[in-house]
Amino acid sequence: MQRFGDNWTLIKLDILEKYLKSYTTVMKNKTYFNLIYIDAFCGCGVNEKINSQGSPLIALDYNFDKYIFIDKSVKYINELKNNINKNANHTNKNILYINKDCNSFIQELSLNRYDRGVIFLDPYGMELSWHSLELIAKTEKLDVWYLFPISGLIRCLKKDRKIHDTICNRITNLLGTENWLSELYQESKQCSIFDEIEYERYNIKDVLSYVKNRLSTIFSGICNQPKILKNSKNSQQFALFFMCSNPKKNVTDLALKLSNYILN
Ligand SMILES: C[S@@+](CC[C@H](N)C(=O)[O-])C[C@H]1O[C@@H](n2cnc3c(N)ncnc32)[C@H](O)[C@@H]1O
Prior knowledge:
With 264 residues, this protein is of the alpha/beta class. It has a single domain (7-156, 204-263), classed as Vaccinia Virus protein VP39 (Rossmann fold). Helices cover 40% and strands 20% of the residues. The chain has ten helices and twelve strands. It has helices at 7-27, 55-59, 74-85, 102-108, 130-139, 150-156, 165-175, 180-183, 204-216, 249-263, and strands at 34-39, 46-47, 52-53, 66-70, 95-98, 115-121, 142-148, 185-187, 199-201, 221-222, 227-230, 236-244. The strands form three sheets. Strands 1, 4, 5, 6, 7, 10, 11 and 12 form an eight-stranded mixed sheet that branches. A two-stranded antiparallel ribbon has the order 2-3. It has a two-stranded antiparallel sheet with strand order 8-9. Strand 4 (66-70), helix 3 and strand 5 (95-98) form a beta-alpha-beta unit. The chain is globular and about 70 Å long. It starts with 6 loop residues before the first helix and ends with a helix. S-adenosylmethionine binds at residues 4, 13, 41-43, 47, 54-55, 70-73, 76, 101-103, 122-124, 127. Residues 4, 13, 41-43, 47, 54-55, 70-73, 76, 101-103, 122-124, 127 line the site of S-adenosylmethionine.
């Protein structure tokens, strides 16, 4: 069993479920496509804290031809198998369980001409590398829900801009550029008593627009506004983004119409 999250976790799962429902309905008659659901941070399928099924069990209620469940914890993969096998409705489903870091799995991911699908990226924090997002975008076949760790990023972006090298590398890995150091800070109008330049970090709203701009450099479409998920103390934890990788305008327009409607 896993125990994490809060009311925002239920909101996140509700948004995912509504999209899976719309997606499988729209694709129902397009039988020439092989529909795939990929859960790159799948967990064990049950969240005791919020008394809810996790994303992989929710996805199994919708008709995909194949499900790929990835988690780097062998314990969670084994628990997920047990949880899925308890439900007789799931016994005939085509499920691939992968016990490894999803960033290395995504490097090996190869989709065929008729594959189409949805990938859910639901990390605890800053585990997903930008390179993985680039590879997902290059498939041109996947719709993407990404729970971006805004509170994790803000914690790393120290106000005085004095950030340890290890943390700098983690931020670069998350955002896919080293320019964030100059782009997310501006020179302060006040000088320090030692006449050094002082910096001010962008506020959370501007950091989120920056993230959205970065994502839109690699995906063909992105939601108007991500869903901001707050904890019980009203502090912003994550931003749930939707992106579309298919470059065909009619496909992107439809995916964005559905996702924007659900996000609103
Ligand atoms: C927030 S939980 C996922 C919850 C799940 N989506 C749900 O709805 O119940 C994050 C999961 O990602 C796994 N994880 C963390 N880092 C990972 C990585 N680099 N690759 C794959 N799985 C990872 C953790 O073991 C954990 O089970």
